[in-house]
Design goal:
CATH topology: Yope Regulator, Chain: A
Shape: globular
Structural class: alpha+beta
Distance between the termini: 89 Å
Number of strands: 6
Length: 180
């Protein structure tokens, strides 16, 4: 009688997330973090397509039961110029309108404006995902959370473009022409 030995290799959370992201055509790179950041491990990720949305996945040393999806969105120079034309109260109104839309997309996200809501330069978005959720619900659950997280980028960009439409280079409106 012969027996078959099946070896089960349990993947670490980092390896599992990396595997899922690669399977879904994301670009993944290992990030080196200085010891003072208090991060166990981190990976840099870019979505498929051009331009890709860049974000990181980090495992904090002091909260080893979770990972954090992290994204920073720099406000474009053109949008900063438009914001600076407004009175401070109007800037606050614009930013709160954009944040309100963003929070409706991702109620689980933590969002911060830096340095402040009157003079914004970047918007930081974090989403905590517990390892227990990853283990229990697997890849479909994680990918849905990731999609919700990434949709905050689209909500912010579309919010700015709603208030201050800026056409990408090469698509600027041309003068109308008449052909006969």
């Amino acid at each position: 009688m012969s027996s078959i030995v099946v070896r089960c290799v349990e993947l670490s959370t980092r390896d599992l997330i990396t595997k899922w992201l690669v399977e879904e055509s994301f670009t993944v790179t290992k990030l080196e973090t200085p010891p003072e950041t208090r991060v166990s491990w981190s990976i840099g990720v870019s979505t498929p397509g051009v331009p890709g949305i860049k974000f990181s996945v980090i495992a904090p040393m002091d909260k080893q039961d979770r990972i954090i999806l992290v994204m920073g969105i720099a406000i474009s120079q053109e949008h900063k110029v438009e914001l600076e034309k407004l009175k401070p109260a109007e800037r606050v109104r614009v930013m709160h309108s954009i944040l309100s839309r963003t929070l409706s997309v991702c109620t689980d996200c933590k969002i911060a404006i830096q340095p402040d809501v009157v003079n914004p330069y970047t918007i930081a978005i974090n989403m905590e995902v517990f390892e227990e959720e990853i283990e229990r619900y697997g890849k479909p659950y994680f990918m849905r959370l990731l999609t919700r997280f990434l949709n905050t980028y689209l909500a912010i960009v579309s919010g700015f473009n709603e208030w201050f439409p800026i056409l990408p280079p090469g698509t600027r409106e041309k003068e109308p022409r008449t052909y006969m």
